[in-house]
Design goal:
2 strands, about 120 residues, mainly alpha, globular, single chain, two-stranded parallel ribbon
């Protein structure tokens, strides 16, 4: 079974879409908060593979990097895995600039229906 067929991946995608739609002013959400919103069905350290699957679909559909909003507690940037997977070889300033660009694109996106339909 593909991770995209996994009900937990679909749940995480729905949680992130709802979060960014309702929190345009503060898009950041922690791994722990996402985990709690799944009713702890996914331990926060096990979210990575679900986030990668969602990010890959967003990229394929030409949508913003939705998963960029998921950060470690106490951090304002996504983890190194996000940058290494989608923006490898960046220095700290470049990571910051890409992150700000991703947030702006997410904030400006009012239509996540392509992702919702893809995940159905």
């Amino acid at each position: 079974m593909s991770l995209l067929d996994n009900p937990k991946t679909k749940l995480v995608a729905k949680i992130l879409i709802k979060h960014v739609s309702e929190n345009k002013g503060n898009l950041i959400i922690t791994y722990g908060e996402v985990s709690k919103l799944t009713d702890n069905a996914i331990f926060h350290r096990n979210l990575r593979s679900h986030l990668y699957a969602i990010a890959d679909v967003c990229k394929e559909l030409g949508l913003p990097h939705l998963t960029a909003v998921v950060c470690r507690k106490g951090s304002i940037l996504p983890g190194d895995g996000f940058f290494n997977e989608y923006f490898p070889g960046l220095n700290d300033q470049e990571k910051h600039d890409i992150f700000v660009k991703c947030l702006n694109e997410i904030r400006e996106c009012d239509d996540w229906s392509k992702l919702i339909k893809y995940m159905e």
